[in-house]
């Protein structure tokens, strides 16, 4: 080819090659034994040109290469580079990778647990660590040239997302930002914002997967391709799957078959044949099938921890073995080396031997409930090819590097914390993105199991949609407010917050709403014309009709509120031992009151679980269930039908105890027929003067006699509905402008009221709050201020601090949690009272917890466990009482350690609480908590 070029062209090409050889990118490319993709080269060139970059590319496409180039540039230029990740596991993994490439002396690690070589030119850290450095004005920020934010799409996370925006906003302008994200549908919008707050930012979006992904459905013994083979970008759903779904939908149910007993023999035979082809294969069957097709290693996503563990057991019981003797020996050697620090008695408690048996056979579970050390071992063995089948919850898809040849999804529905919901296209992309290992696999495979009611078209929609928008979850917090005011003053802080991505998105959305308002105003003019009446002012007549309707609705609501108040008053009179009839709801019927569950401050002589939203009696139903009921279960007043003695030995956790008491309840009161609540008498509307006046005015109005009155009324109804909608849109526009700044203003007012701020001055109390990070930062600060934790020993302090971090996975308020006695119990009670005071203040200053701002109620569910562990109790005893997996126990302990460390740092060095906080850290950081390197 060069022979065809002219001398001038050859000279130009030679100069270009020489210029490329002189770049940092050229020396960087020589460090890898594979060529870089076009999007990687484009991003690296932009970085070398001094621009910031946002790289949005699929999982496994190699976008971290761009982050590593930032490290390379920093070292070449004699600057620092901070590489941030969302989770400690990913930080540890990245630290190992970079230390291997650049040498351990050049790379450091900073997480909540570990600090290794923190003054190195390259430091890997969790994003929260960098945020804390920025607020503290750390000396480590000097000479910082580059910050890599891996998995930057985490800023959508409603609990932690704000941290990413805080870092992006507060980094010095001289720092070049490298943002690495999963494929998001609004990367350009995010890039525009980065351009606004960080300066020149190149947006590089790659939809290309380096390893192509094939989609399948496993039904019965056969694996079907989801899409037909064909040309063009528009793929057609496999007609075999469509036909099977249609046949299954038309198949008569059991009841239908009972009704039509005289089915023709041919129909029965066809149904039998159909059923023999379509079923949901069992877990061992799926793994065997993948193995026979050469599709292992595989990750099977199951949206339940217990189901992941059950899946491993099912494979073991089925005799599945995916490793030969040589592989088994390697597994045992690695496992024994990694778990050598764990005492034998703890290994037994942690289910080590059952776990090891699965690993030796090449099968494992992976979920947040596992001990972090165990999870790390599974990850290492999977990457080495010694574990070939992993059953995991979706948390694996969001973090560490564990690519597989295949990904299996059992269902397309998962529990989202409130209900079972369909997975989104974004979640499907994230989960299946693990399939296909670059440099190892020619193709990746996503397999979905056939389920009853399966829709191939729905799956095709999930597989073919790339809608994963990045939505800001940024909200100001108390800690953020005092840190900002201390650094910038109130006015500048407010301006900074208005540069957030949240405000950027809110302002952009206003444009579309404004257009809708204009359209609505045109529609209102048309409706007004259509409701014109020749007899009089129909707008006035319609207003009278609406006022009448609104008044009738208001009276109906007042009646309902009155009935609710009567029902609540009746509940407050209940006592333990009262036999009642629950009038409605899931637990309607006979019940025995165990605890009246009165609101805080109205004990009625009983010590019960306190509630702030009205009485919530704890009852035993005639069906042996112990449940805490709510006011919604009592739409009418309830009264005691009978009295029963509750035995002192009664234990609501014991099935036998519940059975005996429920039997006594049925014997005692089963024959009683409850009185139905009397119907209310004459309605309020009948005697209301305002309603009588409005009806008289309506009848006297000229338009009342119009023959087209109802036609005009329909146009008037549309007019008022559209007018109401337009008013709501206008309020949304008003509400979305400066929303973040207005929330900040309310927080500042509350902090000023509490003497944390005085204008632009941060008080001593405020300086303490500035060092307390966490969801309950203000509550922790108030506890220190009021001396709530003075006089507690380290174990008691750990118990109290646990209430600031712990949140139960499922809301189970049936029983009050077990608490340590003495000073710890009194201190926990005082913490709840202080929270009540803060809650009232937040309501007064219109700080709304529903919007993610403010202090949730402290959860006392981990206090006894933290106390036991910090008191030196053994793992076996603590886990037995905790009734939670070891991984959860370790994670909560580490969060307790983190907050104890903050308390120690926020208090004077000679204070008792500070000393005891440091002692409590040592008391909690022992055993499994100490030798789990990630959490």
Please name the defining characteristics of this protein:
24 strands; globular; alpha/beta; about 950 residues
Helix content: 40-55%
Largest sheet: 8 strands, mixed
How many β strands by DSSP? 24
Give the distance, in angstroms, between the N- and C-terminal Cα atoms: 57 Å
What is the overall silhouette? Answer: globular
Quick recap:
With 935 residues, this protein is α/β, with parallel strands linked by helices. Helix 6 (127-136) crosses helix 7 (162-170) and helix 20 crosses helix 26 (739-753).
Topology:
Layout: H1 7-21, H2 24-29, H3 38-48, E1 52-56, H4 64-77, E2 80-85, H5 88-102, E3 107-110, E4 115-116, E5 122-126, H6 127-136, E6 144-149, H7 162-170, E7 176-181, H8 187-198, E8 201-205, E9 213-219, E10 222-225, H9 239-250, H10 254-259, H11 265-277, H12 283-292, E11 298-301, H13 305-317, H14 325-338, H15 344-349, H16 352-360, E12 363-366, H17 372-383, E13 389-392, E14 406-409, E15 413-415, E16 420-422, H18 425-432, E17 444-449, H19 456-464, H20 478-497, H21 501-530, H22 538-572, E18 578-582, E19 589-595, E20 618-621, E21 626-628, E22 642-643, H23 655-669, H24 689-700, H25 709-736, H26 739-753, E23 757-758, E24 761-762, H27 764-769, H28 777-785, H29 794-805, H30 823-844, H31 863-870, H32 875-882, H33 886-906, H34 912-924, H35 927-930
Parallel strand pairs: 1-7, 1-8, 2-5, 2-6, 3-5, 6-7, 9-17, 11-13, 11-14, 12-13, 14-17
Antiparallel strand pairs: 3-4, 9-10, 15-16, 18-19, 18-22, 19-20, 20-21, 23-24
Helix pairs in contact: 3-4, 6-7, 18-19, 20-26, 21-25, 22-24, 29-30, 29-31, 29-33, 29-34, 31-32, 33-34
């Amino acid at each position: 080819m060069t022979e065809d070029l002219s001398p001038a062209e050859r000279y130009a090409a030679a100069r270009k090659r020489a210029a490329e050889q002189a770049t940092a990118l050229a020396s960087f490319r020589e460090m890898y034994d594979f060529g870089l993709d076009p999007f990687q080269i484009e991003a690296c060139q932009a970085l070398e040109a001094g621009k910031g970059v946002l790289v949005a590319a699929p999982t496994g496409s190699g976008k971290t290469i761009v982050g590593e180039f930032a490290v390379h540039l920093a070292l070449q230029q004699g600057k620092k580079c901070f590489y941030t990740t969302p989770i400690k596991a990913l930080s540890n993994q990245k630290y190992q990778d970079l230390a291997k490439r650049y040498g351990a002396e050049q790379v450091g690690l900073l997480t909540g647990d570990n600090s290794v070589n923190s003054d190195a030119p390259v430091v890997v850290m969790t994003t929260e660590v960098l945020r804390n450095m920025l607020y503290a004005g750390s000396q480590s920020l000097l000479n910082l040239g580059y910050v890599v934010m891996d998995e930057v799409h985490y800023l959508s996370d409603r609990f932690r997302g704000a941290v990413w925006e805080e870092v992006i906003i507060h980094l010095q302008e001289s720092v070049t930002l490298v943002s690495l994200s999963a494929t998001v549908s609004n990367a350009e919008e995010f890039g525009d914002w980065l351009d606004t707050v960080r300066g020149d930012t190149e947006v590089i979006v790659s939809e290309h997967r380096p390893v192509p992904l094939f989609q399948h459905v496993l039904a019965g013994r056969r694996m079907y391709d989801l899409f037909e083979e064909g040309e063009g970008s528009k793929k057609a759903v496999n007609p075999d799957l469509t036909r099977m779904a249609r046949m299954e939908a038309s198949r008569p149910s059991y009841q239908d078959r009972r009704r039509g007993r005289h089915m023709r023999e041919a129909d029965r035979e066809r149904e039998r044949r159909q059923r023999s082809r379509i079923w949901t294969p069992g877990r061992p069957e799926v793994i065997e099938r993948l193995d026979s097709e050469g599709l292992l290693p595989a990750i099977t996503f199951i949206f339940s921890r217990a189901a992941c563990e059950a899946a491993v057991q099912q494979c073991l019981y089925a005799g599945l073995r995916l490793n030969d003797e040589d592989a088994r020996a390697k597994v045992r050697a690695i496992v024994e080396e990694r778990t050598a620090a764990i005492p034998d008695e703890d290994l037994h408690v942690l289910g080590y031997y059952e776990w090891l048996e699965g690993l030796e056979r090449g099968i494992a579970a992976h979920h947040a409930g596992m001990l972090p050390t165990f999870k790390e071992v599974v990850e290492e063995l999977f990457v080495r090819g010694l574990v070939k089948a992993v059953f995991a919850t979706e948390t694996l898809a969001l973090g560490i590097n564990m690519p597989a040849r295949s990904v299996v999804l059992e269902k397309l529905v998962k529990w989202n914390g409130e209900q079972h919901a369909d997975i989104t296209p974004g979640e499907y992309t994230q989960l299946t993105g693990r399939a296909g290992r670059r440099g190892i696999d020619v193709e990746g495979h996503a397999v979905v199991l056939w389920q009853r009611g399966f829709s191939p078209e729905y799956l095709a929609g999930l597989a073919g949609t790339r809608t994963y928008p990045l939505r800001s979850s940024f909200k100001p917090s108390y800690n953020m407010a005092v840190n900002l005011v201390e650094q910038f003053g109130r006015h500048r802080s407010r301006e900074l917050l208005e540069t957030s991505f949240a405000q950027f998105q809110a302002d952009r959305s206003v444009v579309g709403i404004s257009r809708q308002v204009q359209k609505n105003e045109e529609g209102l003019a048309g409706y007004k014309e259509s409701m014109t009446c020749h007899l009089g002012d129909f707008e006035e007549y319609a207003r009278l009709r609406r006022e009448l309707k609104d008044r009738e609705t208001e009276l109906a609501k007042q009646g309902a509120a009155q009935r609710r108040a009567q029902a609540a008053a009746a509940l407050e009179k209940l006592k333990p031992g009262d036999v009642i009839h629950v009038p409605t709801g899931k637990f309607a019927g006979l019940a025995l009151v165990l605890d009246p569950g009165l609101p805080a401050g109205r004990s009625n002589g009983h010590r019960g679980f306190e509630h702030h939203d009205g009485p919530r009696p704890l009852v035993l139903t005639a069906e042996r269930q112990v449940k805490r009921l709510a006011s919604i279960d009592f739409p009418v007043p309830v009264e005691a039908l009978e009295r029963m003695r509750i035995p002192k030995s009664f234990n609501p956790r014991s099935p036998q105890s519940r059975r005996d008491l429920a039997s006594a309840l049925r014997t005692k009161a089963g024959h009683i027929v409850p009185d139905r609540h009397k119907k209310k008498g004459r309605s309020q509307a009948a005697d209301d003067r305002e309603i009588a006046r409005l009806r008289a005015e309506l009848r006297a109005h000229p338009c009342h006699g119009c023959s087209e009155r109802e036609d005009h009324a329909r146009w008037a109804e549309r007019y008022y509905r559209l007018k109401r909608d337009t008013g709501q849109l206008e309020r949304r526009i008003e509400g979305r402008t400066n929303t973040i700044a207005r929330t900040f203003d309310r927080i500042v007012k509350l902090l000023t009221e509490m003497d944390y701020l005085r204008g632009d001055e941060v008080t001593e109390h405020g300086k303490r709050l500035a060092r307390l990070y966490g969801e309950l930062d203000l509550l922790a600060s108030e506890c220190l201020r009021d001396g709530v934790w003075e006089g507690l020993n380290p174990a008691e302090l750990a118990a109290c601090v646990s209430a600031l971090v712990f949140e139960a996975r499922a809301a189970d308020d049936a029983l009050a949690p077990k608490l340590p006695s003495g000073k710890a119990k009194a201190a926990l009670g005082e913490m709840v009272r202080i929270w009540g005071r803060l809650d009232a203040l937040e309501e007064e200053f219109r700080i709304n917890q529903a919007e993610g701002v403010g202090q949730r109620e402290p959860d006392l569910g981990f206090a006894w466990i933290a106390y036991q562990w910090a008191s030196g109790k053994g793992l076996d005893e603590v886990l037995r009482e905790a009734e939670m997996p070891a991984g959860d126990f370790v994670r909560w302990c580490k969060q307790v350690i983190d907050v104890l460390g903050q308390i120690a740092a926020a208090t004077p060095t000679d204070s008792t609480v500070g000393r005891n906080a440091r002692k409590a850290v040592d008391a909690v950081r022992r055993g499994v908590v100490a030798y789990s390197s990630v959490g």
